[in-house]
Amino acid sequence: xxxxxxxxxxxxxxxxxxxxxxxxxxxxxxxxxxxxxxxxxxxxxxxxxxxxxxxxxxxxxxxxxxxxxxxxxxxxxxxxxxxxxxxxxxxxxxxxxxxxxxxxxxxxxxxxxxxxxxxxxxxxxxxxxxxxxxxxxxxxxxxxxxxxxxxxxxxxxxxxxxx
Length: 163
Known about the structure:
Oligomer: single chain
Shape: elongated
């Protein structure tokens, strides 16, 4: 046991006594000894920090009236367009309106897309409180017919569209 202690102390003294190497300085060395560095200051007495312990209990929480932790809600959407042709439907949560009034959806904001028959769609989407408006587009198979586009405000009771 004592032998291990001596080896450990000797190794520690060797490591601390040697210090660092010469470093990568390519300048010619001189025979002048380096100035002695001052002895390190004695370490300060460590201060033990004690974390504060909360005495609050779950029963102590106050929840205001009307507070709801649910961040989404189901919003029904009903679309009834006057057509017998199949259409491609897309609903977006974000879009830009150009100076000429053209509505341009932002592809990454598409909520749903799919085919609808006879211009009819009845579905439910998950909406959030930050959702303010929706762009609803319905494209005809014939590219010469302009698409149906409308921007509608979000309504928790649902959205109904017909033409």
